[in-house]
Amino acid sequence: MLLETLNSVETILKGDQTITRADRREFLRLLAHGPDYHRRGTNGERLIRRQAAAARLGVSLRQVDNLAQRGVLKRIIFPGRRRGAGILESSLSAALQH
After folding, report:
1. What DSSP line would sit under 60-90, residue for residue?
2. Which domain holds residue 56?
3. What is the pLDDT of residues 29-78, one digit of tens each?
4. Residues 68, 62 contacting (CB under 8 angstroms)
5. CB neighbours of residue 73 within 10 Å
6. What is the C-alpha to C-alpha distance for residues 17 and 31, in angstroms, rounded to an integer?
7. CA nearest 78: which of 51, 25, 42?
8. Residue 29 shares a structural domain with residue 51
9. What is the pTM of this model?
10. 67-84, pLDDT tens digit by residue?
11. Can you say whether residue 43 is alpha, beta or left, with left for phi > 0 and alpha for psi between -120 and 50 degrees?
12. SS3 (DSSP) at 76
């Protein structure tokens, strides 16, 4: 969906005083990403940011990126995004055990 379309829908919803801010945000999130957006690719697992993963492993950010590129760490990228959202905690735990 185009960003302009979402902005238009948001403007319309802001004009309706019967809709709360939280409901409006949830509706727009569902409209943009679908009902299972927060679960895609993670199966409910916790995501760890690159910086936190680097600190836990005791390595640099570049090394975390290299480990993710080699498949040692599982990087999650949400649909429609280019950047990684984080590293799966389970893959980080597995890397720490080795």
Report:
1. -HHHHHHHHHHTSS-EE--TT-SS--EEEHH
2. 47-97
3. 888 876 655 544 456 678 899 999 999 999 999 999 999 999 999 998 87
4. no
5. 23
6. 20
7. 42
8. no
9. 0.55
10. 999 999 999 887 777 888
11. left
12. strand
